[in-house]
Each structure stands twice: as C-alpha cells, then as structure tokens.
Amino acid sequence: MHTYHAHVYYAISQTTLANKVRENILKDIPQITYAGQLIPISIGPHTMPMFELHIPANMINYAKASIDELQEGLSVLIHPVQHDELDAHTNSAIWLGTKLDLKLDALN
Q: Quick one: CATH architecture of 3-107?
C-alpha cells in the first residue's frame, strides 16, 4: 500500500491555531497512521515550521477534502511517498492553500 505525507505549515505566531488544526484533522481522519508533533523550525526541504501526517492511499481523497476544509488558512503540501523525492515534492505534489517555496536542493 502506498502512503501520502501531508505537511501543514504555520508561522510561530500561529502555534495555537496549528495545534487546533492538527487535533481537528486527527478527529476527522482516525485512519492517519502517523501524526507528528509541531516542529517549530525549518527542517529538510520545508521553509516554515510544520507538522507531518501519514495518510494511507485508500484514504487520500477523503483526507484531501477533510484537510482542505479544516486547514483554517494554513498551507498544506500533500505528496506521495516514492523513491524520487524531488518529483514527489514538485510534479506529484498537491497544495491546499498558498503554495510555498521549498528548499529543493535538500531533496537531492
């Protein structure tokens, strides 16, 4: 089974909102297989603080609609887990909300 990752981005001033969004998504999508804690720094290709969710492929359509409804204006990147990380984070990526720049060189 394939998996998707969702990265929900927030500014430090939005930490309370990000926690609320995370809790609401987890309530609405109990099939999420991993729910990371809020990471208050830029890490890897991500240019803002974020938290990560792992979504089973058979739930992706529901999860996209749910996250889109619950994101409260936060930007969300959803991508498949695949060998080609650059493609996953660019060509195969889906953005909900504002598309953010990524540090693509971190994916090489």
A: 2-Layer Sandwich (3.30)
